[in-house]
Write a structure and sequence with these properties.
Dna Topoisomerase Vi A Subunit, Chain: A, domain 2, 3 domains, 6-stranded antiparallel sheet, 4-stranded antiparallel sheet, 14 strands, globular
Length: 334
């Protein structure tokens, strides 16, 4: 018994991980588990989701200059976080188990490879919107927005304008500029009350429907202080909600379903309104985001089980049907 115990103890020591998680380059975690074809040295990359089957890449791996490390955001599943979060979600394990797995896998990796030398992080510039031109409304615009029962008055109220073009620019690491100008039909700028452009909407571009210019809670400039507040997933849904004409309720929308409104803002909203309710898309990503709001802020949510989102429901079923269906759901949580 004693010799067997000693043998097991020696075996355990000999297989102990050679590296602590703090010694493992974060870039290696992403390169290894995502099987990336390029070294990460400060650039952002976009790939197909490793969590869901998709045709259009929607998973971003990016260098966060605020915490000086690589992180990821997967728009199809709603998952995001650091390298440990990536492993946690990939293998459906707890956070601490993710740490152990990374340590084990890296220790195994260096048995057959040289130690991964951290790559020198370069200062990559990111594309920024540097120019745009507002144009006049045309028949195509009217056809598109009226399908969602959104008229010119609503578009003007929420500061939506059609764009002739917009230009994005960045400086490469060698100092040369890269400039891309986009001009097409169905191109819209979202503006604040002071005229500041905060987002560009390209509804007919499946792989890139939005270009974010700056952080902004959509609809906040138009709040007048009604009894109830509904947090929708987009400005289009927000305008569709306003179009329903529910007298004692108004709406706002974050940058996206996956962008959590700050806790400090939620606290103020909960103090201001009798009830704050979340209404996002009824797909997996939307439901996951609503659950986060419930878990983090204790906000009730409602699921409109018709089309994918509120504006699509208005388009398919009309204003009266959607209003009646939505009011029934709202009454259940207030």
């Amino acid at each position: 018994m004693v010799s067997l115990f000693l043998f097991n103890k020696i075996s355990m020591i000999s297989t102990k991980n050679l590296f602590d998680i703090s010694e493992i380059p974060i870039e290696w975690i992403f390169e290894h588990y995502l099987n990336l074809s390029e070294k990460l040295d400060g650039q952002d990359i976009k790939i197909r989701s490793v969590f869901k089957l998709e045709k259009t890449p929607s998973m971003c791996v990016y260098y966060d200059v605020n915490c000086f490390e690589y992180r990821f955001k997967d728009f199809s599943s709603g998952y995001q976080g650091n390298g440990i979060n990536l492993v946690k979600y990939l293998f459906n394990i707890e956070y601490h188990e993710g740490i152990v797995k990374i340590e084990n896998d890296y220790s195994e990796f260096i048995k057959y490879n040289t130690i991964h030398v951290p790559t020198e992080i370069k200062a990559y510039d990111r594309f920024k919107v540097t120019d745009f031109q507002i144009r006049h409304w045309n028949n195509l615009d009217e056809y598109f927005w009226r399908g969602y029962k959104i008229n010119s008055n609503l578009l003007a109220y929420y500061n939506v304008s059609p764009l002739e073009y917009f230009t994005m620019s960045k400086e490469e690491t060698d100092g040369t500029p890269t400039i891309i100008t986009t001009s097409r039909n169905y191109l819209y700028g979202y503006f604040r009350d002071d005229g500041t452009l905060y987002k560009i909407y390209l509804p007919r571009t499946p792989d890139k429907k939005f270009v974010k210019v700056e952080n902004y809670i959509q609809g906040v400039d138009q709040l007048v202080g009604k009894d109830y507040l509904v947090i929708t997933s987009s400005l289009k849904d927000l305008m569709a909600f306003t179009r329903l004409g529910i007298q004692n309720a108004e709406s706002i929308a974050p940058d996206s379903e996956n962008s959590m409104i700050a806790e400090s803002v939620i606290i103020k909203l909960k103090a201001k309104y009798k009830k704050v309710i979340v209404l996002f898309d009824n797909d997996e990503a939307g439901k996951a985001s609503m659950l986060k709001y419930k878990e983090r802020y204790n906000l009730d949510f409602i699921i409109l089980k018709f089309e994918k989102d509120l504006s699509d429901t208005v388009k398919a079923y009309g204003v009266d049907f959607t209003r009646d269906a939505l009011l029934k759901l709202i009454k259940k949580v207030i």
